[in-house]
Design brief:
By secondary structure, this protein is α+β, with helices and mostly antiparallel strands. It contains three helices and eight strands. The protein has two domains: 109 residues, Fervidobacterium nodosum Rt17-B1 like (Heat Shock Protein 90); 91 residues, Heat-shock cognate protein, ATPase (Actin, Chain A, domain 4). It is flat and about 55 Å long.
């Protein structure tokens, strides 16, 4: 039975600039060192996203960032960031999404491959699941999706691991951000011994 920290208190923060409105979370209610580590990870994630869209160029860009808390229980916090930018003279706005999943007890950030045994074939199993969903939903792909990276972007929710793709990454931009939820039980046989995702089963 899991007996660690269950959840964190989320406090919303705002950065206002002439052409930018940035919402982001900070965590409270944890040990001071762990809280500092997690908040630094959040700040680094936000900085990385905004720099990708050159948010500092206030003469040519309007930017708005929002976030969702996808999971905050059983010692996990999983955050999903959405950054919308309108760039002067660009043909269309740009939306970038990113995520961050962290252990509330240690401040460790989890990559996708951290949950699975070495050579378990998790990327192939996830890819095949996605391709079946693509066929079922009649999504037309613009690339030949054969295998996602071992560390593909994801977040956790109550129902499973959510793999997502940027606008225009694997399908036309009109599909928006594509997300595929893979149930934990579907991947359970590939988990590393002592996998933290077992808390969510």
């Amino acid at each position: 039975m899991y007996d660690g920290i269950d959840s964190a208190v989320i406090v919303e923060q705002v950065i206002e600039k002439p052409h930018a409105h940035i919402l982001f979370p900070q965590v409270r209610g944890l040990g001071s060192e762990t809280g500092i580590i997690i908040n630094q990870l959040i700040e680094e994630k936000i900085k990385g996203i905004t720099m990708m869209q050159e948010w500092y160029d206030e003469e040519t860009l309007f930017m708005e960032m929002s976030y969702e808390v996808k999971l905050n229980k059983k010692g996990f916090i999983s955050l999903f960031f959405r950054n919308f930018a309108q760039i002067e003279h660009a043909a269309h706005p740009m939306t970038i999404v990113r995520s961050l999943t962290v252990d509330l007890n240690t401040g460790e950030e989890y990559e996708l491959f951290d949950y699975f045994r070495n050579m378990s074939g998790h990327a192939l199993k996830i890819t095949n699941f996605i391709l079946r969903e693509v066929e079922r939903k009649e999504i037309t792909l613009i690339i030949d999706l054969k295998l996602i990276p071992d560390n593909h972007t994801y977040y956790l929710c109550k129902d499973g691991i959510v793999i997502y793709f940027q606008e225009g990454e694997i399908a036309a931009r009109s599909y928006g951000i594509l997300e595929f939820t893979i149930p934990y039980t579907f991947l359970q046989s590939l988990f590393e011994i002592g996998c933290p995702l077992e808390r969510l089963l």
